[in-house]
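Appendix C: a fully annotated inverse folding record. The material below is reproduced so that readers can follow the format used throughout the book. The structure is listed first as tokens, followed by the designed sequence.
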């Protein structure tokens, strides 16, 4: 079986770089895309051009996404797996985060990821037919269960979750395109340890026991339990080999606990107010 070609965004650090390293170590081909190609000079020195292609890519520029996929196809003839991973975190209360900065983050976390997914699906359908391909979209457990002090980041992941679920439901099964949302908890990556942090909003700043300040303290001082990101990447790599992958891969004990608790809470809430829906039909 020939090696698969992986197209990876956000490859400069975090899950993106770890996935690039893992793919290469497994003997497969990596097309690593990032804003600053110099960040992968170590890997370029270690692996031949026949196994590693490093491309400059800003996912907020749709035309550049199309060009990057075309270069990958020109180099290797196909793209088998897309790890749609570019994104970053901002920490701050909803009231304390500048709107322009939140919008800029959405340009990467949501619109950039959305346009990568669109192009991946097109390539899988029109170039890879009938083999199709695998699209793995990096989300977060905060795209399922929002947390305080990261409202706009959570919102960007909620939006990406909704779009990805709709996209997966729209696809013709004959195209053989499999999509999975990767929903990790806290892992030791640069995105987790070096987020953009805004000063506490004055209304919250002098109340240390508010949950938003407790959450901020855990994030900014590295107090949140963090699992091994390299091991997580190995699980995501294995996911790409499954015949019938899940729509969601919830990864990390903390993430699993949060998702289970969220499901129970939503079920209880629906049951508590179920009777309110019984008399809504027209007479």
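Designed amino acids, in order:
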């Amino acid at each position: 079986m020939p090696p698969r070609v992986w197209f990876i965004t956000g490859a400069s650090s975090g899950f993106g770089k770890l996935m690039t390293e893992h793919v290469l170590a497994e003997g497969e081909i990596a097309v690593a895309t990032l804003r600053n190609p110099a960040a992968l000079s170590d890997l370029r020195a270690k692996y031949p051009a026949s196994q590693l292609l490093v491309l400059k890519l800003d996912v907020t520029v749709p035309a550049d996404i199309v060009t990057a996929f075309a270069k990958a196809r020109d180099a290797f003839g196909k793209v088998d797996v897309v790890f749609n991973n570019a994104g970053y975190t901002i920490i701050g209360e909803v009231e304390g985060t500048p709107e322009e900065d939140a919008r800029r983050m959405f340009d990467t976390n949501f619109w950039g990821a959305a346009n990568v997914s669109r192009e991946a699906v097109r390539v899988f359908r029109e170039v890879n037919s009938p083999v199709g391909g695998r699209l793995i979209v990096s989300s977060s457990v905060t795209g399922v269960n929002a947390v305080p002090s990261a409202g706009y980041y959570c919102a960007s992941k909620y939006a990406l979750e909704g779009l990805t679920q709709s996209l997966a439901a729209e696809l013709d099964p004959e195209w053989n395109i499999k999509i999975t949302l990767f929903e990790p908890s806290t892992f030791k990556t640069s995105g987790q340890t070096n987020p953009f942090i805004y000063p506490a909003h004055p209304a919250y700043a002098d109340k240390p026991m508010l949950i938003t300040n407790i959450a901020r303290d855990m994030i900014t001082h590295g107090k949140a339990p963090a699992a091994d990101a390299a091991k997580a990447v190995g699980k995501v790599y294995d996911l790409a080999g499954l015949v019938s992958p899940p729509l969601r891969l919830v990864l990390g004990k903390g993430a699993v606990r949060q998702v289970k608790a969220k499901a129970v809470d939503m079920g209880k809430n629906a049951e508590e107010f179920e009777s309110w829906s019984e008399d809504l039909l027209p007479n």
